[in-house]
Amino acid sequence: MSSRLARLPPWVSHWLGYRSEAPKPLPAYQVALWSFIIAFGGLSVLQAIFNYSDYFKERHVPGIVASYGASAVLVFGAIESPLAQPRALIFGHFFSALIGVCITKLFSLMPEARFQSLRWLAASLSTAISIVVMQLTGTTHPPAGATALLPATNQEIWELSWYYLPVILLSSTMLLACALLLNNLHRRYPVFWIAPAPPKPAPAPIVKEKEAEEEQTKSPV
């Protein structure tokens, strides 16, 4: 992936996280300052889309899915973590949302009173399965655990039904777009898109000439 990005014009590859040389780390106070500015801007953009669009307001979409507050900590504050990279952000949330809706819908086939009394079980089961799926697919993103919980625990999310899935995809995509645009002003994001670069092989041990000569001159006992 890195080699593909290198073929792009620098004004494109820069905003996709490619650097020909490793960037110098920023002082801690600058990291904290930029994390605040970028998180504020990114979450404001996300909420503006859902709060001020008649299309989403007519469908009773909440201003923000709560789990994206936790995602902001990763993609704006801990941008070098494997848990913050695009693959984990996009697919971790989507798989969890899909599992949460499916499990809760299965429980909703019960009589209403029974369903309401067992929503806690649907929530626990949804998150537990989501964790396993994220582990198996290499998309672990901790905030997505809450994304799986919400269809069972939050009535507003439950009423979205299957429309919850495109809302999650749009939210993840917009958060990623903000992370690419804002993080790359002074830092580098993402560290990788699909998978981290394999570690460089350790150099072969060098045998000193003197030691080699001694080995050759040794006679068997």
From TrEMBL:
Keywords: Membrane, Transmembrane, Transmembrane helix. It comes from the Eukaryota. Residues 199-221 are annotated as: Disordered. Residues 207-221 have a biased composition (Basic and acidic residues). Pfam families: TM_HPP. The chain crosses the membrane at residues 31-52, 64-84, 90-108, 120-141, 161-182. Residues 27-190 form the HPP transmembrane region domain. PANTHER family: TRANSMEMBRANE PROTEIN DDB_G0269096-RELATED. This is HPP transmembrane region domain-containing protein. The lineage of its organism: Eukaryota, Fungi, Dikarya, Ascomycota, Pezizomycotina.
